[in-house]
Amino acid sequence: MTLVHRALFTWFIILVFCICLCLRLENRTQWNYFIVFIPLWIFDAILLIYVIIKIVTKWRFLERLKELIHFYQWNFAVVLLKIAAEICICLKIEYPHMNLSIYTVMIPIWILLPSTIIYVFINLVKNE
Fold first, then answer.
1. How far apart are CA 89 and CA 106, in angstroms?
2. 33: enclosing H helix or E strand
3. Which of 16, 19, 31, 110 is paired with 39 by a 20 to 30 Å CA distance?
4. For residues 17 and 37, what is the distance between their CA atoms, to the nearest angstrom?
5. d(CA 88, CA 33)
6. How many domains does the chain have?
7. For 53-102, how does the pLDDT look when each residue is reduced to its tens digit (9 = 90+)?
8. Is this structure's pTM higher than 0.85?
9. Are 16 and 39 in contact (CB under 8 A)?
10. Could you give the angle at which helices 38-59 and 3-25 cross, rounded to 10 degrees?
């Protein structure tokens, strides 16, 4: 899949999610927020499958699986933190009686954003 196709698919998923979210927020539907987030769950599943396929296709040419897993562990961590953030947000919105603090809900995002900045900075320094 080329870069253009991936970008268009990502925008399409975001569009579908925004439509579902708007329908839910305007009380036109009474869907559970876990159902509203289905486009993002599908996108996360596709991302995980894509990373696994990349590992398997490169593993055929390299004999060291540890190097590949070390190379792609960042991709797994990002997707898993994104899934954790989505689950926390859904729990906070759907079940207000659980009394989840907004600080607790934002922990995966607070881990993800600084680590992404560090990862990008390290790769920029390496490539120069």
1. 8
2. helix 33-36
3. 110
4. 7
5. 11
6. 1
7. 877 777 776 666 677 777 778 888 888 899 999 999 999 999 989 988 99
8. no
9. yes
10. 160
| Beta carbons within 8 Å of 45's beta carbon, 6+ residues apart | none
Compute and round to an integer the Cα radius of gyration of the chain. 18
Q: In whole angstroms, give the CA distance from residue 95 to residue 91.
A: 6
- Pick the closest to residue 41 from 31, 49, 30 (CA basis): 49
pLDDT in tens, 7-38: 999 999 999 999 999 999 998 999 999 999 99
Q: How far apart are CA 98 and CA 85, in angstroms?
A: 16
CA-CA-CA-CA torsion sign (15, 21, 27, 30): positive
* Residue that is written with structure tokens 């996108």 in the block: 43
Distance between CA atoms of residues 20 and 34, nearest Å: 11
